[in-house]
Design goal:
172 residues; alpha+beta; three-stranded antiparallel sheet; 5 helices; 30% helix
Length: 172
């Protein structure tokens, strides 16, 4: 069964294993924990994840962001970053959601379902009427994931597509 779980200290071993096996920068997904030692992860990186979700200790220009690990039963298969609101640079760039799926789990539908779950959670947090995302043009699989979750291409440049998912108001 697939589910999202916020970063936490109880799952530190599996979180550390996933983070350190994920490339530092792949298709625009930035992993600040790449190459960290177990001690660095426990004492610096994980506390930042936990604090950033509460808006504590943010670097200048950063916004609160929740790190959501995608689990398949008892194994982490992906990571989704959910930014709570946008700055001008996020509005023009990365947007609300960034994600990465472990190499051995790609092509199995995890990204599509993980993004669906993240979007569901995002609507409870974000204020905007659309969820903003971006995807490298050299990553057609990720573009397909976004489009499968209701995104449309808002605009593009030489390197990226900038996508949006509109808020759908439920009828009463």
């Amino acid at each position: 069964m697939l589910y999202l779980k916020e970063s936490n200290t109880d799952d530190i071993e599996k979180e550390y294993e996933f983070i350190t096996s994920t490339p530092e920068n792949e298709n625009g997904f930035i992993n600040t924990g790449f190459g960290s030692s177990r001690e660095e992860f426990e004492n610096e990186i994980l506390p930042k994840y936990l604090n950033y979700s509460k808006g504590i200790g943010l670097q200048d220009g950063h916004v609160p962001q929740t790190m959501l690990f995608l689990w398949n039963d008892c194994e982490i298969v992906g990571l989704f970053k959910l930014r709570h609101y946008l700055t001008e640079s996020l509005l023009k760039g990365s947007g609300h959601i960034g994600y990465g799926i472990g190499k051995s789990f790609r092509g199995k539908g995890y990204a599509t379902e993980g993004l669906r779950l993240t979007v569901e959670r995002a609507w409870k947090i974000i204020r905007e009427d659309e969820i903003y995302m971006s995807v490298s043009k050299n990553n057609p699989a990720s573009l397909k994931v976004q489009l499968s979750n209701g995104a449309y291409i808002h605009h593009e440049d030489d390197l990226k597509y900038y996508t949006r998912i509109k808020r759908v108001l439920k009828e009463r």
